[in-house]
Amino acid sequence: MRITNVGCNHWHDADFFIDRPEGSGDYLLLLLKTSAVFVSDRGEMTAEAGSFILFKAGTPQYYRASGARFGNDWFHFLPESSEDENFLKELDIPFDTPVKIDSLSELTVFISMMCNEHYSGGIYSTDTCDLLVKLFFLKLSDKLHRTGERGMGSGYEKMSVLRAKIYNDPARRWNIEELAHEMTMSRSSFQHSYKRLFGVTPMSDVIAARIERSEYLLSSTSYSVSRIAQMCGYSSDIHFVRQFRKVKGESPTEYRTKVKSDR
Predict the structure, then answer these.
(1) CATH topology of domain 154-262
(2) CA-based torsion, 117, 119, 123, 127: positive or negative
(3) Is pTM, for the whole model, over 0.85?
(4) Is the pLDDT score of 111 beyond 60?
């Protein structure tokens, strides 16, 4: 993907409008920080703040402020190959119509990074921008389909942050009461929502995080099995070995021996 122009955190007065009967000659992505009015062959449509619109090359672009100010992030780009075009198509992102999403914050960060890279003149800025555009659309598609399929909106993002905490700190004495409290939910509601979003129970994820960390330590350090058990949140070596065998089908010592022999 080649960025042709990009802007972050741009603000305009109430008289702002865009009138491009033949489009801009490239693709255009807008993130709306205020509401805006879009005009198409279907008539006028007011899009809320927190919406995006992805214009295809050649689509007429008519839009204006709908209040005292107009604020947006945006970038123009061109797919450079059939692979790029297929990439966009497979992500199932709608074209030429405003779509409300739950949060712009992560997406705004990507556009800010694109802006910095595009104007940096660095020797790898073109390649970096290509990756940033693709990461942007992957994240956008994920937001669209997670929200649509799971019905959690911003709750999904909060739960994802909590899940990341579990995997970043598996040795912590996680329990359902603490996790539910962090989400300001009841035990039963939290457990139901977590399972619906991620397909596993919270405590299953705690176990998975601990086993994943123990695999890393077994394969990359010379710590004893007992020490690794402690580092991964187990108060009992026996419990660690039993749980590791249940998940991996072999003991920690057998796993370490196999990994070392494969190198």
Answers:
(1) Arc Repressor Mutant, subunit A (1.10.10)
(2) positive
(3) no
(4) yes
10 Å CB burial of residue 89 (0-12, 13-18, 19+) is exposed
Taking only the tens place, the pLDDT of each residue in 78-97 is 999 999 999 999 999 999 99
Polymer length in residues for the chain: 263
Q: What average pLDDT does range 205-220 have in this prediction?
A: 94
Burial 158-170 (b: 16+ CB within 10 A, else e): ebeebbeebeeeb
Extents of the domains making up the chain: 2-150, 154-262
Neighbours of 192 (CB within 10 A): 13
- The packing angle between helices 202-220 and 237-248, to 10°, is 100
Comparing CA positions, the residue from 29, 4, 5, 38 lying closest to residue 108 is 29
Distance of CA 55 to the CA centre of its chain: 22
218 Cβ contact list (under 8 Å, min separation 6): 225, 228, 252, 255, 256, 259
Name every residue whose Cβ is closer than 8 Å to that of residue 1 and which is 6 or more positions away in sequence.
77, 78, 79, 80, 84, 129, 130, 133, 134
Fold of 2-150: Jelly Rolls (2.60.120)
Residue 227 tokens read as: 């020490």
